[in-house]
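I'm stuck. Please check this protein.
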Amino acid sequence: MSTMSPLLIPAALVTRLRVARRLVVLTGAGISAESGVPTFREAQTGLWARYNPEELATPEAFRGNPQRVWEWYAWRQERVRQAEPNAGHYALVEMERRVAEFVLITQNVDGLHRRAGSHQMVELHGNLFRVKCFDEDRPVENWPESADIPPRCPHCGGLLRPDVVWFGERLPVSALQAAEQAAATAEIFFSIGTSALVYPAADLPFTALAAGATVVEINPQPTPLSPHVTFSLNGPAGAILPGLVEQVWGSASGVGGSGP
């Protein structure tokens, strides 16, 4: 394993990236935290200080008090809307532009990657700004205006819920299969800002390693994955990724964080 300071990119990694055609990236809460988005288990504030997230993000909690759960997610949406994509998000957009085949797998539900301009994405845990029917598990784009909290499904009249993965729920089969296929065929696989503790996402870097990929970890602190990777880049994504993109492909608009 190679280790580096935040400003020193290993020459061997630069060389491999310049010729790579299949690049896969897995991101976790760390890259969003750099934009000021609280991680899921950070202390609640204000009205929600007396609740643990685990008490609100379950099907049982929704059945017991759907209004409370809906209002908590509305509060979380408002906090995310106040955040902006950071230089790390924009650097990943630039990487997508530069590589023939690129897949971004994210555990984050905040939509910041999409706001930055990423397109080839797999959202493993859903999206905070989408909804689906609680009864039929059907995505819903629009629903009639009403005072109902939560609103009602226009198809069956059931309650709408956030389209995110709750405790006790499985990841969407199609998303997990897409992520596993991408990891198994990657030439270079990045694990960025993730604790490497949440499964099944934590298996993906090992899938890539088993298939012969170069695996790169970017994280301020060591994780259980760190001893196994090809390169360990210690530091925040917002500092490391723009420098990496510049060294590999040269400077480009958007990488510094101003973005498209």
User: Anything to note?
Assistant: The chain has two domains: 2-37+85-125+172-249, 38-82+130-164. DSSP finds nine helices and ten strands in the chain.
